[in-house]
Each structure stands twice: as C-alpha cells, then as structure tokens.
Amino acid sequence: MPKRALITGITGQDGSYLAELLLGQGYQVHGVVRRSSTLNFSRIEHIQDRLTLLPGDLLDQNSLIDAVQQARPDEVYNLAAQSFVQTSWNQPVLTGEFTALGVTRVLEAVRLAAPEARFYQASSSEMFGQVRETPQTELTPFHPRSPYGVAKVYGHYATVNYRESYGLFACSGILFNHESPRRGLEFVTRKITDGAARIKLGLADELRLGNLEAQRDWGFAGDYVKAMWRMLQHDRPDDFVVGTGRTHTVRYFVEQTFAALGITLAWEGRELDEVGVDTANGRVVVRTDERFYRPAEVNLLLSDPTKAREVLGWTPEVDIEGLVEMMVRADYERLSTGRR
Ligand code: NAP
Ligand code: G4F
Fold first, then answer.
1. 7 Cα to the center of ligand 2, angstroms
2. Closest Cα partner for 30 from 40, 19, 41, 38?
3. In CATH, what number is assigned to the domain containing residue 267?
4. Strand 239-242 to strand 207-209: parallel, antiparallel, or no bridges (unpaired)?
5. Considering only CA atoms, which residue is closest to atom 9 of ligand 2?
6. CATH number at residue 109
7. Ligand 1: which of 82, 83, 148, 189 to mutate, judged by most atoms within 8 Å of the beta carbon?
8. pTM score, whole prediction
9. How far apart are CA 124 and CA 121, in angstroms?
10. Which of 6, 14, 21, 30 to mutate to test the pocket of ligand 1 (most atoms within 8 A of CB)?
11. pLDDT tens-digit map of 252-294
C-alpha cells in the first residue's frame, strides 16, 4: 500500500517541492487549498493531475477535520501560514489566526481524525529573533522580533505540547531561510534576482531595498523539504534546526546577483541614501528606501545544523553561490521570453 500524505500550504514554495519529493517516493499526495477568486496553482500545475486537492482553510476547523478524514494520512505536513514577516506588522491579528492558532486547528484535526499520523510543523529561525547566542541550535532561547515570529513560537510550543499531552508523533522543524526560483517575489532574495534581471534586460531602472546589513543563513528549498521528510521517518518525534551553517548579508546577495549578470557594483553614500552604482557605465541600479525597513529587525541568523546532520543524515547540497545562480538564471530566462 502506498503511503498517504496531507500537505497544508501545497500551493506555496515549500509545498510544491515537498509534493514533488513525496510523489517521487510513491506517496499518494493530498493537499489542502483555500478558496480564491482566481486559481493560484502555478507552482503545482506540472503535477496537479497526480495530486488530490481538498478544500480547507486554517481559519476553519471543520474544513481541516474533513480534509484529514478524506486523506486518511500517514503523514501530515503543516506548511500553510501567513509567511511574510513584513506583512505581520500590518496584519498582526490575521497572522496570529493563521500562523499561531492555525497550528492548533491542524493539530486538533489530526488528534481527532488521524491520531496515528505523523505530524510536521513548519517552524522558523525567525523565532530566534534578537539572537541570544550564535550559532543557533535546538536549545537556543527564543526572542521573536515580529508578530510573525511570535506566532511561530506559539505554533512550535503547540506542537511540542501535543506530543507531550497526547503522544502524537509531532515534530517541529526550525528552518532557516530557504529560497528557490519559486520563492514569492516579495521576499528579499527573489526581489533581488527578479529586479536585477529586469535591469539587465532594460525592463527596470533601479531596485529599491531596505536593510542591506541583515545577515541570513540562506539555503535551497529543494534541499530543505528532504529534511522535513526525514524528520517523519525518524524512529521518534523530535525538533531539529535546519540550515547551511553559513550566513551572508543582503548586500552580499545583491553583489553576487549583479555579478552573475556581468554587472559589478560600487557602493556610495551611507545608511538610507546608499546607492549601488554599476561600475561599467556609472548608472545607479540599487537604492535603499525607508519603506522597506522593519519596525524591529532580526540582524543575524546562523544555524548550527549538527543535530540534523548526525541524527537525520541530512546535509544541504546547494550553496549560496549556486542558489543565486539558479534564481537569477530562472528570472532572466522567464523575463527574456516575455513572461512577466
Ligand atoms: P509560502 O510560499 O508563502 O506558502 C504559504 C502557503 O500557505 C500557501 O500555499 C498559502 O496558500 C497557504 N496559506 C496561507 N494562508 C492559508 C490559510 N488561511 N488556509 C490555508 N492555506 C493557507 O511559504 P513557504 O516559503 O512555502 O513556507 C512554508 C512554511 O514554512 C510556512 O509556514 C512558513 O512560515 C515556514 N517557513 C518558511 C521559511 C522559508 O524561508 N521559506 C523558513 C522557515 C519557516 P495560497 O497559495 O492560497 O496563498
Ligand atoms: O526575505 P525576507 O523578507 O525574509 P525573512 O524576514 O528573513 O523571513 C523569511 O525567513 C524566515 C526564516 O527565518 C521565515 F520564517 C519567513 O516565513 C520568511 O520565509 O527578509 C530577509 C532580510 C530581512 O532582514 C529584511 O529586513 O532582508 C531584509 N531586506 C532588505 N531589503 C528586505 C528588503 N526584505 C524584503 N522582503 N524586502 C526588501 O526590500
């Protein structure tokens, strides 16, 4: 009998890579999708005929119970969330409903309808926030700096609590930033690769960004979904930090991206009026803009993924340079063939 999986957030970046991985392993894959006035299945359209999509919303308890009853899953991956940190300051209550209470709703659906299923919660390095130690491990205390981070701390502890209270096989994956050509355009990496490709093709004049000094431990989403799967194959439920163990500034990501397109940048000015100048022709191509700074910043994230490596045998395959190259090439090709 093939294994059965249920994924919330299947239309998102990680959901699409995880669905591909599980189909490749012979799983029957079910996905929860919420109602929208226009379809947004672009990340899964190439595999849609092999998926069973079930209607449901993190705000609606009954729809989640129905989805679990219909899917009869061996494994449940809760990837759905309001996942953009910046938006969480504009919509803190909705972020709490989706990203915090939504976890309890999915856990309740599993407890009631499939208590033997293994459960994965998409926790986040954003929980470390104003970091208490570097690098960050499974034992590093949390100090979230955004309504999103606060909501993820709730989801993490809800997962731990259902494991301890009801004996659910519930795992929390504390994943550091992971990106891909399928990353949403609002996140900084994709904004940079898309923006730089547009400038190279003459479709845009400049790219406006916020804090260039923030440091992130960036990996490839296709690698990280393998860590999620491995957590649910382990012999006991546990929590794992997943990252590359390397960190870089936003500025480095910008420089690498433009370099991949043959543009070398020189930086002029300081703080909010800083500009990146294309050294070959003197044009300003990058400009910092106050609108993209955050009320409270997470300045530095750096993982210690030792436990994931030693217990799960997981290591990332794509490094930052490979990731930049993959993303900028995909955006350049997409835009140069007229797709916007
Ligand atoms: P994403 O691309 O933004 O995808 C989010 C998914 O959640 C989408 O499928 C979205 O559906 C769905 N969703 C949002 N609200 C929902 C609701 N009320 N009911 C049902 N579905 C809803 O995010 P991602 O990058 O794949 O991340 C996956 C998960 O990992 C998220 O929980 C995120 O917070 C967490 N995480 C991500 C990273 C990272 O670097 N990517 C790191 C750590 C943790 P629609 O398509 O309908 O909008
Ligand atoms: O790409 P970002 O928006 O990702 P952020 O805030 O780190 O959150 C992502 O990673 C988390 C894991 O740590 C996930 F849980 C979460 O769901 C999401 O996937 O911003 C990265 C950094 C920040 O420091 C931000 O201030 O880039 C800085 N930044 C500078 N200019 C910018 C911009 N971020 C965005 N989105 N847009 C800018 O123009």
1. 24
2. 19
3. 3.90.25.10
4. unpaired
5. 177
6. 3.40.50.720
7. 83
8. 0.98
9. 9
10. 14
11. 999 999 999 999 999 998 666 899 999 999 999 999 999 999 9
